[in-house]
């Protein structure tokens, strides 16, 4: 078989068995790396001991396990290029997976039988891998692909600047989120993080080091942004900055009726021109299933015990068993504190949340952006951070969100009491660049919703049950022709990936053949089987 041909679906699916609730063990495609790998320049940075490989064998999701043969701790991007060139020129190229924080949940950063590149090594020591350019009308930061967003924030704030688009959690790497999209409550106005990047340095699957932007090597630029690590390793990103506020007025507004909730959410996100003067700077939302209020924690970092009691009362009065929150934030500085009060009052008057159910916090900008850190600390101290996370994230066309709500929140999940968080918030499609690899629903609508089922499974049984729930949700979406797309996608067959990429699939396969012809990169995404897997199958 030619090296750059892609294995058919039947072979691919036989490679990756279905998750059963135990940690799924992915088979290594071929055992052993070429011995001469350990004679090249980067050999001293390659570890093969069990301690090193074990750390790179699973991820935040803890649903999948597969050990690499080795882990590379690169000192420079050139080390990564050398490894990839070596693999590409081997008789049987071995897989190579960049690993940022390993905060995926389906083994996307694993490299069974190959080499995991510990990206975080690039930033260790005294290497200046975050450089802010504050002068000029269009300030930016050059950040290493291995850098954590929290560190990018700290470095840019020294200049009174910050990126515009954020994920909810900041202990993720720049390369890791840009390989997906990087979404959060600012996306309705500024698009996902990938829409806020000017330039990238990428090491391709042939080991070439390429600088790319919208004007220069634009194919690779568009491919790598949202590219699930398939076309190259992002070693630097130039990210747009704006003046940073110092404080944030942060509210949650409760709704018992989904129609009013979504109407208000869409009102908040669709007025974007000049909205920084009158609207929220951040809009997200959550769904709370009735039983999770009754059985959940007695207080949270946002809600006091008495708030939760009032919310439980509200939930019990609704027949539906679900209540909804809009989460909004307004940025301001100390000298605009009075006007933020007026602006908030005027905005809240336009919304139809349950009277009296507005909950407000006033925090610093850093406390707001880094808010999930506080929850992480609480979950860690309760021993429920490092558990299985069978998460499912979907993008739902705006016109079908009520059908999804009826079928899923008031149907399939109504009587469950899953531990975790359910996110639900709209974004504007025109803030996404459709030339990038990231996928949004194909329906020609202006608004689509991100729905995140962020479950925590406290036992194997729990994980199995939640997996079944996720499958039912996907089956419901199929049957009801909701037209959803997975975000942070997971498909176990090439047919699944074809459907995921839809009209983009042909282009994706072409770009793969150009930039990673041996299908070396990020095999844990399970999109394109590698040459090594072909040999593994042949010898199995
Ligand atoms: P990894 O898990 O290490 O890698 C992810 C994939 O990208 C792998 O295929 C890997 O091979 C590839 N990759 C890693 N680094 C590079 C690189 N430099 N170049 C090319 N490919 C690379 N996502 C959102 O969009 N919004 C959120 O609000 C959000 N919140 C989250 C909260 C939590 C608690 C967690 C655990 C995840 C959250 N995510 C969110 C998902 C997160 O963005 C992705 O899982 C992301 O991939 C994690 O980054 P990472 O650095 O850990 O990447």
Features:
540 residues; alpha+beta; Uridine Diphospho-n-acetylenolpyruvylglucosamine Reductase, domain 3; Vanillyl-alcohol Oxidase, Chain A, domain 3; eight-stranded antiparallel β-sheet; disordered N terminus; binds flavin-adenine dinucleotide
Can you characterise this structure?
By secondary structure, the protein is an alpha+beta fold. Among the domains are: 114 residues, Uridine Diphospho-n-acetylenolpyruvylglucosamine Reductase, domain 3 (2-Layer Sandwich); 241 residues, FAD-linked oxidases, C-terminal domain (Vanillyl-alcohol Oxidase, Chain A, domain 3, 3-Layer(aba) Sandwich). It has 19 helices and 20 strands. The strands form 4 sheets. Strands 16-13-15-14-18-19-17-20 form an 8-stranded antiparallel β-sheet. Strands 7, 8, 9, 10, 11 and 12 form a 6-stranded antiparallel β-sheet that branches. It has a 4-stranded mixed β-sheet with strand order 2-4-6-5, with helices on one face. α15 runs antiparallel to α16. The longest helix has 20 residues. The chain is globular and about 70 Å long. The N terminus is likely disordered. Bound molecules: flavin-adenine dinucleotide (FAD). The site of flavin-adenine dinucleotide has 36 residues, from β5, α5 and β12.
């Amino acid at each position: 078989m030619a090296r750059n041909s892609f294995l058919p679906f039947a072979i691919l699916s036989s490679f990756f068995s279905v998750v059963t609730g135990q940690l799924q063990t992915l088979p290594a495609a071929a055992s052993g790396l070429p011995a001469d790998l350990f004679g090249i320049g980067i050999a001293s940075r390659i570890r093969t001991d069990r301690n090193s490989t074990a750390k790179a064998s699973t991820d935040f999701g803890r649903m999948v396990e597969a050990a690499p043969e080795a882990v590379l701790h690169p000192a420079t991007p050139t080390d990564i290029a050398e490894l990839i060139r070596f693999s590409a020129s081997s008789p049987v190229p071995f897989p190579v997976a960049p690993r940022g924080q390993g905060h995926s949940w389906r083994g996307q950063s694993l490299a069974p039988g190959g080499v995991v590149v510990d990206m975080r090594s690039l930033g260790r020591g005294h290497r200046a891998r975050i450089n802010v350019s504050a002068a000029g009308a269009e300030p930016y930061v050059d950040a290493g692909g291995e850098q954590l967003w929290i560190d990018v924030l700290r470095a840019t704030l020294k200049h009174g600047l910050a990126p515009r688009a954020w994920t909810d959690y900041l202990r993720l790497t720049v390369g890791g989120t840009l390989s997906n999209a990087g979404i959060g409550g600012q996306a309705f106005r500024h698009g996902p993080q990938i829409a806020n990047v000017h330039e990238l340095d990428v090491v391709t699957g042939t080991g070439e080091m390429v600088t790319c932007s919208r004007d220069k090597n634009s194919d690779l630029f568009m491919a790598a942004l949202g590219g699930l690590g398939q076309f190259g390793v992002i070693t630097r990103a130039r990210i747009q900055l704006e003046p940073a506020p110092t404080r944030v007025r942060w509210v949650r507004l409760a709704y018992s009726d989904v129609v009013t909730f979504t109407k208000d959410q869409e009102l908040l996100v669709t007025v974007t021109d000049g909205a920084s003067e009158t609207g929220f700077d951040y809009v997200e939302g959550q769904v709370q299933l009735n039983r999770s209020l009754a059985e959940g924690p007695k207080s949270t970092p946002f809600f006091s015990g008495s708030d939760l009691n009032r919310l439980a009362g509200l939930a019990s009065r609704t027949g539906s068993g679900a209540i909804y929150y809009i989460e909004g934030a307004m940025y301001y500085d100390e000298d605009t504190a009075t006007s933020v009060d007026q602006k908030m009052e005027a905005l809240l008057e336009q919304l139809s949340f349950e009277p009296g159910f507005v909950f407000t916090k006033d925090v610093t900008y850093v406390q707001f952006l880094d808010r999930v850190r506080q929850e992480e600390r609480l979950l860690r101290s309760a021993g429920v951070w490092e558990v299985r996370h069978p998460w499912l994230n979907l993008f739902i066309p705006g016109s079908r969100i009520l059908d999804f709500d009826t079928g899923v929140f008031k149907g399939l999940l109504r009587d469950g009491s899953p531990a975790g968080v359910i996110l639900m918030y709209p974004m504007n499609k025109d803030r996404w660049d459709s030339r990038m690899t990231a996928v949004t629903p194909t329906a020609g609508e202006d608004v689509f919703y991100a729905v995140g089922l962020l479950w925590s499974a406290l036992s194997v049984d729990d994980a199995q049950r939640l997996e079944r729930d996720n499958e039912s949700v996907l089956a419901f979406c199929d049957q009801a022709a909701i037209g959803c797309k997975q975000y942070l996608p997971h498909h176990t067959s090439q047919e699944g990936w074809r459907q995921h990429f839809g009209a983009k699939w042909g282009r994706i396969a072409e770009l793969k053949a150009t930039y990673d012809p041996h299908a070396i990169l990020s095999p844990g995404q399970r999109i394109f089987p590698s040459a090594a897997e072909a040999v593994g199958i042949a010898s199995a």
